[in-house]
Write a structure and sequence with these properties.
Elements: E1 16-20, E2 23-26, E3 31-34, H1 37-40, H2 49-59, H3 72-83, E4 89-93, H4 96-114, E5 121-125, H5 134-139, H6 143-146, E6 156-159, H7 164-170, E7 175-180, E8 183-184, E9 190-191, H8 194-206, E10 210-214, H9 229-232, E11 238-241, E12 252-256, H10 258-261, H11 277-290, H12 293-317, E13 320-326, E14 329-334, H13 342-351, E15 354-355, E16 357-358, E17 363-366, H14 374-389
Parallel strand pairs: 3-15, 5-6, 5-7, 7-10, 10-11
Antiparallel strand pairs: 1-2, 2-3, 4-12, 8-9, 11-12, 13-14, 14-17, 16-17
Helix pairs in contact: 2-11, 3-11, 12-14, 13-14
């Protein structure tokens, strides 16, 4: 097929045509087990009937009226999010990058409102990932994504992930915000240590900075709780969500407290499509399905079973030296002799009818549907095993 899109993506050698649950069929009719979940987006699998119903119902009522107005679906979704979390207010947008952009702008605006202009520094983590806008790619601590776009926004400092001493040393009177992923997703599915998040909270409190948790990938049931911060008992001032929030329909959200939200007065920030009725209606229905005890328990249990099976497979084949993660966000760290070759395994798996992901060159990532069945899990593992047997 002729490609008419810009060459910033390297597309797989197949074209998905239709999907149901955790199974996908390409344009040639070949079936795949999907353990990638659209990069942690399809939390309820593909073509969930309740989401189709919500989208269809809303499509017959109202699509778009601009942010001059609010709508019932937007207010209903914001109410659900605030009632289930620490937050008091929600800003809706269209993606994780936009949610993080809003969070970082709010942090700087809050500091500007309450302190002097010297309080503008953002502390982030090396190998973090927060999006592809110029601001978020600068805050993400991966030069490979930012170096070609210099000059970059200033007053951003990076510290090693899970290095409590370095974090405490970096945060000071000049700091307006600390941003952390509770699990570093793109850089290897690496969970935060309890002490690291606790230190971040203490440091922010001591220096009147805002703590931002980027839960774009970890939120909406992915780790077995609605949001990953709930595993740790460390509460942020701002939280960002996207990906699974709409379970396939584009939507992002920034959640925050009344205290911080006050700095986003009329005209300070906006989004033409943010909070549109279609997205909020689908996300509201997805929220109802995800934020159920049985859904969250299933995700936690299936994630545990999948991690155990992958650990066994890694030990038997010698391919994985470690399997880590939380819930249904799992990283398989390649053994030394396979280092740097995660992309090869992703391609071999696709040839066997299995969709998986990379999280850096040394880690294979799985982020399947929270509703993954035992049957689909076992079939996916069988196809992965076959791919490993063919890997030299």
């Amino acid at each position: 097929m002729q490609n008419y899109l810009t060459p910033n993506f390297s597309f797989a050698p197949m074209i998905p045509e239709r999907a149901q649950g955790s199974r996908v069929w390409d344009s040639e009719g070949r079936e795949y087990i999907d353990l990638a979940g659209g990069i942690a987006v399809n939390a309820l699998g593909h073509s969930h009937p309740a989401l189709i119903e919500a989208l269809t119902e809303q499509a017959q009522k109202l699509w778009h009226v601009s942010n001059i107005y609010t709508t019932t679906p937007a207010q209903a979704l914001a109410k659900k999010l605030t009632e289930a979390t620490f937050a008091d207010k929600v800003f809706f947008c269209n993606s994780g990058a936009e949610a993080n952009e809003a969070a970082l702008k709010l942090a700087r605006k809050y500091a500007h409102d309450h302190f002097d202009d010297s309080k503008s520094e953002i502390i982030a983590c090396i190998n973090g990932f927060h999006g592809r806008t110029l601001f978020t790619v600068s805050v993400g601590g991966q030069p490979k994504y930012s170096r070609d776009f210099a000059p970059l926004p200033p007053a951003i400092t990076h510290v090693p992930y899970n290095n409590t001493a370095a974090l405490e040393a970096a945060v000071g009177p000049q700091t307006c915000a600390v941003i952390i992923e509770p699990v570093q997703g793109e850089s290897g599915v690496l969970p935060a240590e309890q002490a690291f998040l606790e230190a971040a909270r203490r440091a922010c409190d001591a220096h009147h900075a805002l703590l931002i948790f980027d839960e774009v990938q970890t939120g909406m049931g992915r780790t077995g709780k609605l949001f990953a911060y709930q595993h740790y008992g460390v509460v942020p001032d701002i939280l960002t969500s996207a990906k699974a929030l709409g379970s396939g329909f584009p939507i992002g959200a920034m959640l925050t407290t009344d205290k911080a939200a006050a700095s986003f007065g009329p005209g300070t920030h906006g989004s033409t499509f943010g909070g549109n009725p279609l997205a909020c209606a689908v996300a509201g229905r997805a929220f109802d399905l995800i934020n159920r005890p049985n859904t969250l328990q299933h995700a936690e249990e299936q994630g545990s079973k999948l991690q155990q099976a992958l650990t066994t497979l890694g030990r038997e084949t010698g391919v994985f030296q470690e399997v880590r993660g939380m819930g249904m966000l799992i990283g398989c760290v390649l053994s030394a002799q396979y280092a740097g070759r995660a992309g090869e395994l992703v391609q071999l798996a696709l040839q066997q009818g299995l969709m998986i992901l990379m999280a850096g060159a040394d880690v294979v990532r799985l982020a399947p549907s929270l509703l993954l069945s035992d049957e689909d899990m076992q079939e996916g593992l069988a196809r992965l095993n076959k791919a490993l047997q063919n890997w030299q």
